[in-house]
Structures
1.
Amino acid sequence: MLELRTHRIAGTEPGQRAAALAAGSAAWLPAELAVYDRLFTAAGLTPYRVRELAEAARAALAGWAPDLAGELDQYAVACGLPPWRIHALDARTELLAAAGAAGRGECSTVATTTPGGPLGAQTWDWHRELAGGWAVLEYPQTALPFVTVTEAGLLAKIGINSAGVGVLFNILSHRSDTGTGGVPVHAVARRILDSADSVEAAVAILRSAPLAASSCFTLLDPSRVACLEASPAGVAELPAARWTLHTNHFRSPDLAPGALATDPDSDSQPRLDVLASRTAGEPADLWTGADAEGLAELLCAHAADGADVCCHAPADAALGSGWQTLATIALDPAGRRISVLAGGPCGRPERQWYRFNAGRAGRAG
């Protein structure tokens, strides 16, 4: 049975957390760096350009959240690396946007409000070569303790904090994406997780960040769900709905006209159509699958079902085209709980869920 890599990152100061993360990620960071070096090269970025973009991202982050920039600097030092190498990882979305690297597809998100409160889940689809480059990280001593599923060098990604504020992610592409001079979207996720005590506070943090690349942030707390498409051109909140669904294309009428055309092989719209079909006529307040397992079942769709929401890379896929569901994640804000399944939702029941409570020690069971 596949085990998750987990690390508890103790420390009240950035340097303490950086040292703890460096010790915990020493075994897997080098392989991750090597894959990203290859991905950046394949996207047409020279080493000089990677460093230039990374240093621009660091400058933007230092202006917006100097403590986070410092934490990445100290993590790099603890790993024996120049800081720009780690800032390139944290800004990998921005670097790939600067290169104009389009993808076939990545990540499908569902969220709803049940009688017990909001729930949300997503598939995290990324390059299969990075299947060993992520972990569940617990941060028990930040302003708000939180748990996140993320890659080494990235400040955070999908996660939930002790106030019950959760973040789900979908990458987007917009004509305003420059890839340079903006705060990395993963740093925004970290600031939300370590500081926001409500969806309203999370939205304010997101709107305060000057961005260089686009993403959709689905935000949850114990009382509501909000879905915001964010780009350098602005941030748009989608209308509230019984079911909040998102894949990898803009839907806001304010931002969609400036969206970049998706890759010709993109399955973003078919994946959204599958999720819409599965939730059509299903009142959230009567939904009986109100848990991680029920949400995973919604996400368990393959080509025969209309689209690969649960994604498997072909054996012969070249670097940069081998999209795979690396993890399935569900959030329960009322319970301050994140449930993580290594791989896609079709891996159940052979692969088991691991559950963590933000602000508590260890797994929730």
2.
Amino acid sequence: MYFYELHESDDDLYSDALLTHEQEFTEEEFFELVQEARHRVQDTFEEETLVEAIARELERTHGFVYVSDAMLVAAVNVSRIEEENFIATIGAEEDEGDEDEADDSDGTGLGRDAFRTLIVDLDRERPN
């Protein structure tokens, strides 16, 4: 099994996608496949990011497996502190099981999963 990664970064969003394939491609071969897929989907994709759209296109057209969060079977939080080690909820289980967190607990009218990205401007010149 060979692993490939896609990165998308613009000024506001950073996104990655991990793909696997049984065949080994050179960097140049993989780049060409990605470029072909990008040209096919860049103006018409329905996924949240271009990276996800390219990953899905490579999955459909070239037999890659897009290792997305939807494929997760289990997640475990790991820490040196014993109490912080636990089985984490993933996907829909999280939404169904944590009604208190999904509600409007902060008064904003938005649930816990309302945002996927947080952008913060930091003044690195100013001392703390």
